[in-house]
Amino acid sequence: MVKPSLDASTVYEVCTATARPSGVRKALQGLKETVVKAATAYEVAAAQQAQHTLDHLKHQPDGESATKATKAAKAAKGSINEELKKTYVNRMVGGAGRAVYDKLRGSCHGLCALCGHGAADTLDHQLPKDSFPLLSVVPVNLVPACSRCNHQKKEQAPTHAGDQTLHPYFDGDVHDHLWLFARVTGPPKPSVIFYVDPPADMPPAFAARARHHFATLELSGLYNSQIAYELRSLGMSLAKHPLPPAELREHLQETAEIKAAVEGRNSWKAALYQGLVDSAWYVEGGWEEPWK
Ligand SMILES: [Zn+2]
Questions:
Q1: How many other C-beta atoms lie within 10 A of the C-beta of residue 260?
Q2: What is the pTM of this model?
Q3: What would the pLDDT profile of 125-147 be if each residue is shown by its tens digit?
Q4: Which residues have CB less than 5 Å away from ligand 1 (the ion)?
């Protein structure tokens, strides 16, 4: 996925221009260079899969963490960290920066860039704004996401390279490798298990992150909830036009390749169809089982 071309400085200006009262606005505007510097540091780190090295930005500029209990008190006292976070909630999502929010949210064909399946009804902070207030409205830190993935990911901040979900703007190379697979078994009907199995030549950090992504977002459950209709459609289609095993294998292989080309090599559909190709039971008649 192409990273957003919106620049951090302009977006920050737009989001803070209407902040009230004027004292807060001035304080926020005075932080523009700090935010731009943080955005640059973030981009450099993310391009090297090293967001875990950004500890120096944690809880800046106030420099301390706010617990839930102290958040309200800090906000009342005019904590600039709380104002930065409010800049996302009140000034981007619900304010002058809404057009930016909508543009980012629609940037993956309206789909969640984390699971590739749900509707992108929100933006996910790849590094959470609670820990990284300076990155609250930095475009490259904001990824279109479904509420489910946003909730699953929670407020995680990575502690090492493998401790991060995949970043859609910076981790495209992870899909140079095939690491998502599906095992199809039966009878009485196709049972599918999705799993991650990184190849030996995949860089270890990418391999760890692919596993972390799959586990954190509970993608196995999500994908499994999608397969019933897909397999039913396929079964009904094959019932109308049955194919001998060798031809069926060829047909499924071609479908797997099309799904990989259109939806991605590590998409659940590409994995499912490859799993069907590799299932002797399915190809040799298993596809008929539920509808005999
Ligand atoms: Zn999602």
A1: 19
A2: 0.89
A3: 999 999 999 999 999 999 999 99
A4: 112, 114-115, 118, 146, 149
